[in-house]
Amino acid sequence: xxxxxxxxxxxxxxxxxSAYLNLEASPIVSAVEDLGEIDLGDLSSQANQEGNxxxxxxxxxxxxxxHTIFDGSRSKQMYAIAVLDSAVKKIRxxxxxxxxxxxxxxxxxxxxxxxxxxxxxxxxxxxxxAAALANTDNASGAEKDVRDGFEDGKKSPVDPPPMEExxxxxxxxxxxxxxxxxxxxxxxxxxxxxxDDWADPEPLIVKTDPxxxxxxxxxxxxxxxxxxxxxxxxxxxPIVASSALAAIATVAQGHFDxxxxxxxxxxxSLFCLAIADSGDRKTSAARFSKTIQQHEKNxxxxxxxxxxxxxxxxxxxxxxRQGLKQKxxxxxxxxxxxxxxxxxxxxxxxxxxxxxPRMPRWQYQDFTIEALSKGMMGWPAAVIESDExxxxxxxxxxxxxxxxxxxxxxxxxxGKPIHVDRRQSESYLIDxxxxxxx
Length: 438
Description:
By secondary structure, the chain is mostly helical. It is built from 15 helices and 11 strands. The radius of gyration is 38 Å and the shape is elongated. Mean pLDDT is about 75; it is low at about 1-70 and about 165-180.
């Protein structure tokens, strides 16, 4: 049997019975897509037993010591048998996470060939089911997958492509052949045909079972609170723990940094993202932040009188400022000798600008990065929080400049200063702020 790598066609076929490979031969490509190894000798024997040997010796595509590939209806049956053999191998060797899909797809393919009359239904189905049962711990589910795919495939009969299309395609067939004893080949010549069997490539991504959440790593008071909430609202522990940790980070991030190693220190802010289906009680689990919301509300009510006082002082200050600026312009036009005195008054007034009260603003949802930056200049610790991520990732900022927003959020998480330069408005520096995301 001559077996080639899956990524290669049969590049050389010798017409000289005394030679094994003819390196000068023209490429010959036949067509069965990803079928593994096909033993045409067995297929020819089956055809001979049915009395079709003479028919199989006509219309040859090419000859390998009288073991040939043929056109015609018998070739279609041979093609279908090869497809069935490949399907059995794929189902039997399917990896965890791919078994369900493989059973459905291969069952559907073989079912189409059965519907077109190229395979015996009972025999084909029994082989597929046997392969599925040999590679599962759930026998009933495996058989159901195969039968569902098989029945679905029978609704759409599949006819093998004409031989000329198979011969001109880029698909690969691995041909088993019986040859006379070959002439010894120069052992210094290396080929890629040393192995008779090539294993299926290992997947780059493998679905794994989730590991238990490390709840024991939390301090006792936090662990007890998480377990109590999870039991009360019937929400998954990881979602509840994520909400609790984000709330703690929100209120503590403005007071502490953490040094993870020598020369490696930074904020204790957290970026948390919980992925869950509808009905997993995400909203119910996100109640740890209610205390923060209530604190923000209470502080705004307490500082409301101070805010009104600040607005009055600011109006008075702005009026004086405009008056001095107008007076200064008039003095400059008249070359008044008192212009220096007016300039000093304006500078002194500028230095006495009223300071606004610190109004807490902890939470943001639908925002622009500019509004977030300005807001954090007034209250330097905040959290972007929502029980529906679409309100954040589908917001205005993400639609207009998603990469810039994500870059700025990353800088906030690092605790790095952000310089905002504007040509037509006041530039500013954001430094010492802390931001979490939940």
